[in-house]
Amino acid sequence: MLAIPAQELTGELPDPPEFAALSEPTFVSISDILEYKALPEYHEPDWVTSKYVDAGTLPPVAERLPKEPMVYKTGNMPEGIGVYGDTMRHVIGGRPEGWNYIGGQSQGWGGIDIGLSECLTRTGPLFEVKADELEPMPNLAKSWEWSEDGHELTMHLIEGAKWSDGDAFDADDVMFFWNDNVNDPNVTPLNNATPETFGVGTTLEALDPYTIKWTFKDVRPTQYLYAMAYGSFCPGPSHILKPEHPKYKPSNTYEQYKNAFPPEYMNIPVMGAWVPVEYRPDDIIVMRRNPYYWKVDENGNQLPYLNEMHYRLSTWADRDVQAVAGSGDFSNLEQAESYVEALRRSAEDSAPARLQFGARTIGYALEMNLSANGWGEPDERAQRVRELNRNLDFRKAISIAVDRQRLGESLVRGPFTAIYPGGLYAGTAYYDKASTVYYPYNIEAAGALLDGIGLVDTDGNGIRNFPDGGPDVEITVLANTDYGTDTNLAEGVIAQMEPLGIRVIANFQSGTARDDMQQAGQFDWHVRRQGSEMVSVVQGTAQLAPTGPRTSFFHRGGTDGTVDVLPFEQELVDIVNKFISSSDNAERAELMKQYQHIYTENIYTVGLTQYPGALIINKRFANIPAGAPIFMFNWAEDNIIRERVFVPEDKQGDFELHPETLPGKPGGAGPV
Ligand code: GLA
Predict the structure, then answer these.
(1) 111 Cα to the center of ligand 1, angstroms
(2) Ligand 1, pocket residues at CB < 6 Å
(3) Which of 92, 107, 332, 481 to mutate to test the pocket of ligand 1 (most atoms within 8 A of CB)?
(4) What's the rounded mean pLDDT across residues 8-30?
């Protein structure tokens, strides 16, 4: 048997190809972007005053706003104070399951939930905040302070803000979210709102309607402020959701709670700038301006400037096509297969949209299910695969059987894709090349490694067998059919495993089904587009390792609720926990070097490819910040601060489907 010393498998990691299409943000302080204060007067679109306020069906704007609204500073708005009107026409590939976001339902992505949910803090726009001043922006929490001993964090909620139906937003909403959703194990959050996301043993209490107090085991874990942003701390309307929660309505099951607000349910109260008022299956979701939105510009104009938002229910590829053609307004160009064509069309003078590439923050990895203690209830075959997945030689063999250069080029030729060994992305703040272990393509060595662990083709059918006359090694790979890139990469992996004698079978599912199977642990392998933890590290930090039973994407608690972590995973968990509790920048950088080393040395995931994405926005929109990345702390739909975006009068289109209307009653028929 051939023994291969580990060092012979590693090699020099080529630098990513130069890619010079970046536009730089102008770096600012958070206090340059916004503040909270009362203004002498407030304004709203004329038709809101004449049709609703004057008719007595809506209180005057000053009464609808909080005592001290959030005020966006003119100096940070690229084109300054805007005007009202027009629509942003999004196109998305997902479909809404319903409106109970905190109960675990998806609205179809593409910026819908980002726009509906406002969270305690906000991180998307941090791409333009000076690196040495980096901390989450205030949002629903307008300020906070730490106790002397650093264990307590007191947060002040915005006072007098209202849900889009006029109901008060206060600590009741926050506590319902925390007690009855995050901390209720029967509720499966969509994103990462698990108790461990905020630290084991962390508690939260309401001191009064506008003051909440966190108590942490660690001292000054400022890192959790990032967990209070989009994804993990965006409360829902407790006055609407609570009556359907099984704790308050014992006749309801948790499934009934989750599904109590189907897509047809209109005017769900939100804290975001637009409210869903119309839904046509497989066609469109229309949203109208939230008359109670709690943010204004410095002239006292209530935001948003845009009256309407569309989410055309189509495909993600169509989002690119429509944005480039001008029949849609926005796309995150992220499926590398269409880059060349999109670039060509956008370069024409008559192109309706501008296309701006950012850094390489889109990346894919092959994740192996590492649970051997029952997560997802594997059958005998799947259990054997799990045992293989946990074997380092096996992961090495798979990794070096992947020709990453070819895989990247199969998506797009040119300076876009780069070899991705797994772990943190090259070019991001915490990446360190010297700490990155790279195992280059080496199909012969891959075969020898598999021979070494007893996986040989005993029945001569070209597929290796499990040891001792076991069956063929057959492994399924989960991928999301909503994206061509996901399935193309998975097809590439399937093809590249063939010469190795491993039979990989496509388990390709729609986005929603994929999400469910991932959450439930029903997969052997999964080709997945990575999250912001791999880009920013500070966002989604708890997901960098199995820090809790539900934090990892590919290794969650088994039947007894515990995670059967491998020794190197325990090291990763310890590093991540240390990172979270440290506020010493030098120490944090050092910890992430260790993380990267252990991660890549152990091939925690099989990195596939990483490449830049481009933001495509129709040229009629103003106030799009320079250098807004499609993905960093969050997606571009958050990064560009849509509530501040406007269309100058002479460029306004005639796209509003429900002009001069406002959202109606929750559960009512539509706009009024
Ligand atoms: C999907 C899209 C992304 C982005 C996000 C926002 O994942 O692929 O480009 O729009 O939704 O949630």
Answers:
(1) 6
(2) 109-111, 114, 316, 332, 334, 635, 637
(3) 332
(4) 86
Which residue is closest in CA terms to ligand 1's atom 5?
A: 110
Q: Are 127 and 112 in contact (CB under 8 A)?
A: no
Nearest-CA residue for atom 9 of ligand 1: 332
Examine the domain organization and report whether 135 and 240 are in the same domain.
Answer: yes
- The pLDDT value recorded for residue 1 is 46
Run of H or E residues at 493: helix 484-497
- Which residue's CA is the nearest one to ligand 1's atom 8? 110
Tokens of 308: 């309407």
> What pTM does this model have?
0.96
Same domain, 530 and 403: yes
* CB 654 within 8 Å of CB 553: no
Q: Is residue 583 part of a domain?
A: yes
Q: What is the mean pLDDT of the chain?
A: 96
Q: Tokens at residue 178, please?
A: 């925390």
**Range of the structural domain that residue 493 is part of:** 370-611
Statement: residue 208 has pLDDT above 80: yes
Domain count, the chain: 2
CATH no. for residue 492?
Answer: 3.10.105.10
Specify the CATH number for the domain of residue 165: 3.40.190.10
Instruction: Tell me what pLDDT residue 33 has.
Output: 98
Q: Are residues 319 and 291 in the same domain?
A: yes
Q: Which phi and psi angles does 218 have, rounded to 5°?
A: -80, 170
Query: 155 and 264, same structural domain?
Result: yes
* Test site for ligand 1: of 88, 635, 638, 642, most ligand atoms within 8 A of the Cβ: 635
- Give the distance (Å) from ligand 1 centre to CA of residue 109: 6
For β-strands 418-419 and 606-611, DSSP reports them as antiparallel
User: Which whole-number Å values give the CA distances from 111 to 107, 311, 499, in the listed order?
Assistant: 9, 9, 41
| Residue with CA closest to ligand 1 atom 4 | 110
